[in-house]
Amino acid sequence: MKKSTLLHLRIPFSFFLLPIFLFAWAIEPEVDVFLLAIVFLIIHFLLYPASNVYNSYFDKDEESIGGLKEPPKVSKEMYWYALIFDAAAVILGLLFVNFTFALLLFIYGLVSKAYSHPAIRLKRYAWVSWFIAGLFQGYFTFLMSYIGLHDTTLSTTFDMKIQLGALLSSLMLWGSYPMTQIYQHKEDARRGDRTLSLKLGIVGTFHFVMVAFALAAALYVWYFLYFFELKVAFLYIAFLLPLLIFFFRWYLKVLFDRSRADFQHTMRLNLISGIVLNLFFLLLAWWNYS
User: Fold this and answer.
1) By C-alpha distance, which of 16, 44, 8 is closest to 276?
2) What angle in degrees, to the nearest 10, is found between the helix axes of 141-150 and 99-116?
3) How far is CA 167 from the centre of its chain?
4) Are 269 and 243 in contact (CB under 8 A)?
5) DSSP per-residue string spanning 178-242
6) What is the C-alpha to C-alpha distance for residues 66 and 75, in angstroms, rounded to an integer?
7) Which of 116-120, 175-179, 262-266, 283-287 is predicted least confidently?
8) What is the largest CA-CA distance in the chain?
9) Could you read off the pLDDT of 58-110 as tens digits, one per residue?
10) How far is 46 from 146, CA to CA, in rounded Å?
11) Is the dihedral of CA 204, 206, 210, 212 positive or negative?
12) What is the mean pLDDT of residues 243-253?
C-alpha cells in the first residue's frame, strides 16, 4: 500500500463518528466482549476508511479535506483498496456476527459509493446529500451497530428507546454536517458540488448549525430524562459546554473575518466534539452497565 493510499484512508477520522457506535452500545452495554471488539473494528477500521478513500479517489481534492490538511495525489490503487476494505468488512461481518449485520454493511458501502461516484454523485445535490449523509452515518449506523453488538436482527430494533436513539443520532449529524463543509467552498464550487454549506454561505452555515444543533441537543436532553434520569441529562449538558464555548468564540471571529472559517478551526471543532461526546457515551455505558 502506498503512503498516499494509507493517508487517504483517514483512519483517525473515524474517531469523529465513534459517538454513534458508543451511543448504540451505551443504551444496552451488556454485550459479548468479542462482539464489541469485532463490530468496532469492522466499522471504524474497514467500513469508514473504505468510504473515505473511495470518496478521495473520485474527488481528487487539491485543498484540505477532513483529516488531511494537504491531501496527497490520488492513484488507481485507492479505488481497489476501497473495494477490498468494503469486501473485508462484509465478509468479517458475515463470519463473526450475522447476515443482517453483513447486509447493512454492504448497503452502507453502496450508499457511500453513490455519494461520490460521478455516475450518481449525490454529493452534488445540496439537500439530498445532507439528508443521505445524516441518515446513513446516524440512524442507519446506530441500528447497524446495535444489531452487530447484540448479534440480533432488525426486528429487535423496533423499540422506542432504540429507534429514538437512532433518530437522534441523525438529528445531531444533520445539525453539524454543514459545518464540516465550510472550509471547502472553493474546492466544491470548482467540481460543481453544490453542498449545503456552499448554498447557505459561511455565516448562514453557522446560523443553520446553531438552530439545528440546539433542537437536537434539546431532544437529547428529553431522551435522557425519559429513559434514564436527571443526572444523565445534566451530565450531557455539562459535556457539551466546551464545544459550545469554542463554537461561539469561532463564530464571533468569523463575523469579523470570513477567512477564519478554515480547516484548522473546523478540525478543532471536530476534535472537541469527538472528545466530549465519546467521553459522555463511555460514561453512560459504564453508568448503565453498573
Assistant:
1) 16
2) 160
3) 14
4) yes
5) GGGGTT-HHHHHHHT---HHHHH-HHHHHHHHHHHHHHHHHHHHHHHHHHS-HHHHHHHHHHHHH
6) 19
7) 116-120
8) 55
9) 877 666 666 667 777 878 898 899 999 999 999 999 999 999 999 999 999 99
10) 17
11) positive
12) 94
